[in-house]
Amino acid sequence: MSTVDDIDADSPDPAVPFVGALSHTHTDPLGDPFLRTRFARPAKPSAFLRRQRLVDHLGEALRAPLTLINGPAGSGKTLLATDWADEVGTPLAWLTFDGTDSPPGVFWAYVLQALRAGGAPVSDAVGTPADASHVDHRLLSGLAAELNERDRPVTLVLDDYHRVTDTKIAEQLEFVLHHAGPGLRLVLITRTEPVLPLHRYRAAGVLTEIRSAELAFTPEEAAALLRLHGLDLPVQAARNLVERTRGWAAGLSLSALAAKENHDPELYLKEFEADCSTVGDFLLAEVLNGQTPQTQDFLLRVSILERFCPDLADALTRRVDAEPILASLNGANAFVERLGHSWYQLHPLFRAILRTHLRVRLPGQEPELHRRAAEWLRRHGFLAEALAHSTAAGDWDSAAGALVEDLAIGRLFTGPGADDLTQLFSDMEPEARSPATDLVRAARDLARHDIDHARASLRHAEQHLPDDAAARLSCALLDALAARLTGSPPDVERAAETAAGLKREVPARLLDKHPEFDALLMAHVGSTLLWAGRFEDARAVLTGVAGMAGGVSTASAREEALAHLALLDYLNGWTARAEHKALEAVPDTERPGAPQPSGAAIGRLVLAAVAVDRDELERARDLLDQADHLSRDSRDPVVAAGRALVEARLLLAQGRVRAAVEAADPAVDASVACPWAATHEMLVAATAHLTEGRADRAAEELAAVPGDQPVWAVQAATLQLAARGPEAALDLLGTVRTEGRSGPAVTVRAVLVRARAAEAEGDTALARKLVAQALLDARRERLRRPFLDSGAWLRPLLATAPLRDLAAGWLRPVPPLGEKEQAPPLVAVELSAREHDVLARVARMMSTEEIAEDLCLSVNTVKTHLKSIYRKLAVSRRAEAVHRARELRML
Predict the structure, then answer these.
(1) How far apart are alpha carbons 750 and 741 in whole angstroms?
(2) Percentage of the residues of the chain whose pLDDT score is greater than 90
(3) Lowest pLDDT segment from 142-146, 456-460, 535-539, 866-870
(4) Nearest residue to 281 via CA among 248, 314, 255
(5) DSSP string, 176-187
(6) Nearest to residue 521, comparing CAs of 492, 550, 547?
(7) How far, in Å, CA of 490 to CA of 529, rounded?
(8) Fewer CB near the terminus (10 Å): N or C of the chain?
(9) Buried b (16+ CB within 10 A) or exposed e, 581-606
(10) pLDDT for residue 18 is more than 60
């Protein structure tokens, strides 16, 4: 192995870590020998991942006088520079600073020695520092002048430059860099912002910067790094790990090393605890233990916060120096991240470490810290965060009181934070028995459709409610929901009247702040009116809800209103309108955890009902199953009645009459009976009697069907054709006005009843004319069931021209008796060429991003095509689109 004296300055050997002759002086101005390890580039580990994007960016260092690589400990700064330096060649000088604070003389002695070791020795005329605390200006001038005269620039890498704290050294370094001109390329690797005029270099465009955000690993890079560690995990698992580590290089590598020792690496990486791993050891050693005791105490206390500003931190710590501490920690890349507008957050892994050590070093302090945080946050308008800290402190009265006083009780039912808010109060102790906690407990139970417990809490709350309008208004909202779930229009209208009076006593700012309150209240009213059969009143109320503003806070109520309006349209025979509203009401993704809003289930029930009318029975079953999944814990009577209606119609279409009779009963214990559900149950019973040859019993059922709702009266008239003949059907039909408010699903059936009567009287021409009219009206909405349910009399007519042509392409031909039915002709759906391309790739299970890349489109353009495909195929999901397209032989 070569010694220092063996190295020849004129014959650089790239295989040797030090190139060029070292000075005859082997000691620094303090008399200590130069440490050769400080001139050596660190070796790359065996599991090193080259990140070409960073190497390419760092390549700009050869064209800029100053390059800054600034990031926290373990972010991969040094290894990146080492990887890049391997391609730079000589002359490249490397100098790493250790934990000692070098005075100017020692600093420059090491720089000169690094230049010699890197193959760029300076002449004896420059000299060497003789005094550790001082550097002669002539030395700096001579060094700069010699560097400026070089044919090839020297690259000087100063690693761990944050250890250099003497401001004189920064001034001297800037002087040499400025006067060395093109002869010096300076690369600083640091955790802190160097005391150099970076703004001047940045303004001149001669500064290369790589900072924390760019150093962070991407999910793809993380997956590649894990593979180098022998862990072949999916990109999604790597993405989850990147989210937890913020792409921090050391965190990824250390957790990968630990995961290799675990029997289930993927699960370990998903659930690992930073404070119980080598990651925690690293953070303690490199970050926390390097701070002063005062700063450590500060960090431990603010670790209870998800985010914080200086004022909040001061309130928590009872100090007044949070602003300079936070600025210093952020500037030092000490895992305190600036969010903007004076707000900060701790790196999630660092926060986990601090939380653990808080419990050890300051036992019993957490509840008080949470209470202080809650008080400050509530006072400054951050209600959700204040509630989180109050509940963490176990202060349920304060948490519930804040929620009720802010008129935010509706946030337990709607808005993006509904699940989180429900979870916060899920552990509320039974001993917490204030009026506010009773209201929150009732709201929580109603959200789970636990009506009995909710009513008990409401009664207890009402007995002790203070003379506070917000609390009483919150109680009225919960009364309305309880009345809705029990199908009681008088109670829900009484609650709405009470709320209207109380709203005049509540500050307008609270009502403006919580638009979801009115949206939820009126949605409950509209749903209950629909249940009671007061369709026009329900439509007026629900239309108002659907048109409300309020953004995400009212989204669930608007979706519910749209779904209920879709059901109203369906019950009035407007299938296309119903389908359009139902698709709007069905969200793209469902909320995990808490029960779904009833609109999600009702929307799918309406889509299933439309599918039955179109004789798309498999699709109807799929949608029914989805609705069942969403409403499995629901006690909403409208949902139950809607499900009974659709299930019975599907079973009738499948010929399972007895099963349809059983399914037609919604089995709801409501204060007021649902007239349309009861009427539908009668019609299904009449169908069963007819099927089983009991025409008289069928006629009895039909006689009880009210004639004020065209949809039911027309269906009753259709059944009367078989029970009593055309004359009885026409008599019933004569009492019904189908014009105006009734849609094709009603009018087509009415026309077919008249066509059957005409055919029975021998007026075939009129029958054909009426059937042609029915075909034209039904074709626009693909209504097949009215024709399939009409019976054998229609078959000969459909086999004749021009009726055969009107039915071609969308209506399944009814074969003569005794012949097997043929597969139905497919409905024509027109997709553009690009939509066909997108659909074909969806069928190959490609993601949106993969489709965009494959077709050279933007992701947003692909999403637009997908929405158009869903609309044209009358579906709401990818799998449904593929299934439907295959049914239509488009794939």
Answers:
(1) 14
(2) 46
(3) 866-870
(4) 255
(5) HHHHHGGGEEEE
(6) 492
(7) 10
(8) N
(9) bbbbbbbeeeeeebbbbbbbbbbbbb
(10) no
For residue 557, which of 524, 583, 584 has the smallest C-alpha distance? 524
Which structure tokens are listed for 509? Answer: 């700012």
Higher local confidence (pLDDT), 830 or 45? 45
The single-letter DSSP state of residue 27 is B
Confidence at 12, pLDDT banded by 50, 70, 90: very low
* Gyration radius (Cα) of the chain, Å: 38
Q: Which residue has the tokens 């080492």?
A: 82
SS3 helix, strand, coil % of the chain, rounded to 5? 60, 5, 35
CA–CA distances in Å: residue 297 to residues 58, 291, 672, 701: 38, 10, 63, 80
Assigned token pair, 860:
């947003």
Q: Is 116 exposed, middle or buried (0-12, 13-18, 19+ CB in 10 A)?
A: buried
**98 CB burial (10 A radius; 0-12, 13-18, 19+):** exposed
Summarize pLDDT for 749-796 with one digit per residue, the tens: 989 989 988 988 889 999 999 999 999 999 988 999 999 888 778 888
Spatial CA neighbour of 96 closest among 164, 27, 24, 147? 164
pLDDT tens, residue by residue, 871-890: 777 677 888 888 777 766 67
pLDDT band at 709 (very low <50, low <70, confident <90, very high): confident
Rounded-to-integer distance, Cα 220 and Cα 225, Å:
9
Q: Which of 727, 735, 718, 709 is nearest to 684 (CA)?
A: 718
pTM for the structure as a whole: 0.69
At which residue do the structure tokens 């419990």 appear?
A: 359
**Contact 546/556 with Cβ under 8 angstroms?**
no
Residue 676 burial (CB count, 10 A): 21
As a three-state string, the secondary structure of 627-677 is HHHHCCCCCCHHHHHHHHHHHHHHHHHCCCHHHHHHHCCCCCCCCCCCHHH
pLDDT value for 155: 94
- Are 719 and 690 in contact by the 8 Å Cβ rule? The answer is yes
Q: For the residues 411-432, what does the mean pLDDT come to?
A: 84
Strands 336-340 and 343-346: antiparallel
The answer to whether 812 and 782 are in contact (CB under 8 A) is no
Counting every residue written for the chain, the total comes to 891
Q: Is the dihedral of CA 296, 302, 306, 311 positive or negative?
A: negative
Give the pLDDT score at 497.
95
Which residue is listed with tokens 């408010």? Answer: 741
> 16-25, 484-493, 502-511: which has the minimum mean pLDDT?
16-25
Dist CA 157 CA 148 (whole Å): 17
Please provide the DSSP assignment of 98-124 as one string.
Answer: -SS---HHHHHHHHHHHHHHBT-PPPT
Tokens representing 424 are 């916060």
Taking a C-beta distance cutoff of 8 angstroms, is the pair 851, 844 a contact? no
> What is the H or E stretch that residue 383 is in?
helix 383-392
Looking at residue 287, the DSSP 8-state letter turns out to be I
Residue-range domains of the chain with CATH:
4-215 (3.40.50.300), 219-272 (no CATH), 515-691 (1.25.40.10), 705-812 (no CATH), 833-887 (1.10.10.10)
Among 815, 828, 738, 830, smallest CA distance to 779 is for: 828
Q: In the 8-state DSSP scheme, what is residue 284?
A: I
